Amino acid sequence: MVMLAKRVLGTSRTAALGSVEAALGGLKAIWGSSQHYCSALFKEVTYRELKNLLRSKNIMLIDVRESWEILEHGKIPGSVNIPLDEVGEALQMNPRDFKEKYQEVKPSKSDSLVFSCFSGVRSKKAMDTAISLGFNSAQHYAGGWKEWVTYEMSEKK
Question: Do 46 and 143 form a contact (C-beta atoms < 8 A)?
Fold first, then answer.
């Protein structure tokens, strides 16, 4: 009897593990394809790309640093300050409230957004938030304010 129980459990455990492995294989295939899809649409923007995008006026540049950081260090010309902890709420506001709070027209889900911060960490989080809310063309400036200032100073020499 014990022998029979061991054989049955051993067989069902193997079958269960086989099912789990098959499911994980399927998830890996989906994950791999979604990573490829996402990386094609959502990316990091270089200093040069950001300069060109700002010249074209086809983006909204959102600086996600705290207000005091912008007052203390400055900001990229043309950027709108929406601190990181407000990004999700701001992107879901009605257009009138957004305009009142940020003095800018609220972006639509098809508008190009670029997020920036000091060094690229918070801007990546903001980009992820925008993507999760359905914004189709969200990017982030990985170099952030730190890189912007360095390049701007070297270009003026």
Answer: yes
Q: Given 50, 60, 64, 117, which residue is catalytic?
A: 117
Q: Is 38 a catalytic residue?
A: no
Q: How far apart, in Å, are the Cα atoms of 29 and each of 23, 36, 151?
A: 10, 11, 41
Backbone phi, psi, residue 133, to 5°: -90, 0
Furthest C-alpha separation in the chain: 88
- The pLDDT tens digits of the residues spanning 99-142 come to 999 999 999 999 999 999 999 999 999 999 999 999 989 999 99
User: Using CA atoms, how far apart are residues 133 and 109, in angstroms rounded to an integer?
Assistant: 8
